[in-house]
Write a structure and sequence with these properties.
Shape: globular
Structural class: alpha/beta
Helix content: 25-40%
Mean pLDDT: 97
Strand order of the largest sheet: 1-2-7-6-3-4-5
Low-confidence stretches: none
Strand content: 15-25%
Distance between the termini: 18 Å
Largest sheet: 7 strands, mixed
Number of strands: 7
Length: 225
């Protein structure tokens, strides 16, 4: 993909860019990308870099739908994600844990607004998932899981102003590139890489497009090495 100026807010936009890299606007579609990439019976270490924790568990509030969700195939998951009830931009991680293929979750999130950090621990206990909160990038970069990696990035990580829609205080280009460089080994090794544009949270629309043009080509280049 090279025409980043054409990107616009679109809740249903998601694109397979090749090299195991998916780009989307609404972060909820990451779950479907992971499901399409994963091998049956294999568990994965999820590395989540984002401004927000995205740790809400909607399924815990509707237990009558849980069994069907756990057993859903790809067409059903696609429909459930589009429905935007059980799988949302802030609940897709817990949904992945409840699907049973996540052995550990590593959070590198910069949000400091008093919200709960990470996942509700009883969910992790039920599905045998271990969660880690990384306070600094060096700790996140040093993760060395034994299971294959899923690398998940939201571009709003690079926006310090998330207190209002389309607010913008972006990291400078050198800082953004520096982040990609520090986690390059995870990006190269991952089974699948998901990148969320998150229009409205990652700056102005032009700011989001700028971040995409800065980050996505570098991610793809790392995958080709």
């Amino acid at each position: 993909m090279d025409n980043f100026r054409s990107l616009a807010p679109d809740e249903n936009f998601r694109a397979n860019l090749g090299e195991g890299v998916w780009l989307m606007d609404n972060h909820k579609w990451a779950l479907l990308a992971w499901e399409q990439a994963r091998a049956a019976g294999q568990r994965y270490a999820l590395l989540h870099a984002d401004y927000h924790w995205d740790g809400i568990d909607v399924l815990g509030e509707v237990p009558e739908r849980l069994t069907a969700f756990e057993a859903a195939g790809l067409p059903e998951l696609d429909a459930l994600t589009e429905e935007d009830v059980l799988v949302r931009f802030d609940s897709f991680i817990a949904a992945a844990v409840r699907r049973g293929f996540v052995s550990e979750v590593h959070f590198y999130c910069t949000e400091d607004e008093g919200n709960d950090e990470g996942l509700y621990q009883p969910i992790c206990d039920r599905y045998g998932t271990v969660q880690f909160i990384h306070r600094d990038l060096e700790s996140f970069a040093a993760v060395a899981p034994t299971d294959p990696v899923i690398f998940d990035l939201c571009l709003d990580l690079f926006n310090r102003s998330n207190d209002e829609e389309y607010g913008e205080d972006l990291w400078n280009d050198e800082e953004v590139i520096g982040f990609v460089d520090v986690v390059a080994h995870h990006i190269r090794a991952a089974k699948v890489v998901t990148v969320s544009l998150s229009f409205g949270y990652s700056g102005t629309p032009d700011g989001t497009r700028h971040l995409a043009a800065l980050v996505v080509p570098r991610v793809l280049a790392l995958r080709r090495v």
